[in-house]
């Protein structure tokens, strides 16, 4: 990832998707830049921001070891999408549905 002044670029000169969505300058140390591309990241980040808030996710990611952050972002994005679909249960409703299917297939 190249940097040009204070703006993070991924070879395109564009801010990361999170900063693009938030309409802010993307700094070289942006916590979101490695996980939200300029091309697709804004749409993906929108759900995360709506459900959890950018500040909360930033604080959370700072507490996660760097080598685990990618998996954390995937999990947060999945839960955000699930919460938009089912605000009460989120991904738990999907897990419950899969559990019912397993029970049905195993004859319980």
From TrEMBL:
Pfam families in alphabetical order: LOB
Annotated InterPro entries: LOB
Full protein name: LOB domain-containing protein
Signal sequence, start to end: none
GO terms for biological process, alphabetical: hormone-mediated signaling pathway; positive regulation of DNA-templated transcription
GO cellular component, one term: nucleus
Family statement: Belongs to the LOB domain-containing protein family.
Domain of life, source organism: Eukaryota
Stretches assigned to the LOB domain: 14-108
């Amino acid at each position: 990832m190249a940097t040009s002044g204070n703006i993070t670029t991924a070879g395109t000169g564009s801010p990361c998707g999170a900063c693009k969505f938030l309409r802010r300058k993307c700094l070289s140390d942006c916590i979101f830049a490695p996980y939200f591309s300029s091309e697709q990241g804004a749409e993906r980040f929108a759900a995360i921001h709506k459900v959890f808030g950018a500040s909360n996710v930033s604080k959370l990611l700072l507490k996660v070891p760097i080598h685990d952050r990618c998996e954390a972002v995937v999990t947060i994005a999945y839960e955000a999408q699930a919460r938009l679909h089912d605000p009460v249960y989120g991904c738990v409703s999907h897990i419950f549905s899969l559990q019912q299917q397993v029970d049905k297939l195993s004859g319980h």
